[in-house]
């Protein structure tokens, strides 16, 4: 790697580290509580829990009636 490319990589790394250092940090238990609250508020719209209505399931194979 050339010194110019190495310098650019280091500058990019420094910018990234500065961005991450300035991010708001919260405690793990607070993040977990917020995630749990969000999940409980949106449980009625969770397709994994309530399923997908047959009429709006675009991945369901269409059913055809073939007469022989």
Automatic annotation (TrEMBL):
- Which CDD domains does this entry report, sorted A to Z? GGL
Q: Which GO terms describe its cellular component?
A: heterotrimeric G-protein complex
Q: Which GO terms describe its molecular function?
A: G-protein beta-subunit binding
Database matches in Pfam families: G-gamma
Which compartment or compartments is the protein found in?
Cell membrane
Q: Which PANTHER family match?
A: GUANINE NUCLEOTIDE-BINDING PROTEIN GAMMA SUBUNIT (PTHR13809)
Q: What does this protein do?
A: Guanine nucleotide-binding proteins (G proteins) are involved as a modulator or transducer in various transmembrane signaling systems. The beta and gamma chains are required for the GTPase activity, for replacement of GDP by GTP, and for G protein-effector interaction.
Q: What is this protein called?
A: Guanine nucleotide-binding protein subunit gamma
């Amino acid at each position: 790697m050339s010194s110019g490319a190495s310098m650019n990589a280091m500058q990019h790394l420094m910018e990234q580290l500065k961005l991450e250092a300035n991010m708001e940090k919260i405690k793990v238990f607070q993040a977990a509580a917020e995630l749990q609250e969000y999940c409980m508020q949106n449980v009625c719209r969770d397709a994994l829990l309530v399923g997908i209505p047959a009429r709006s399931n675009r991945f369901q194979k269409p059913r055809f009636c073939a007469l022989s």
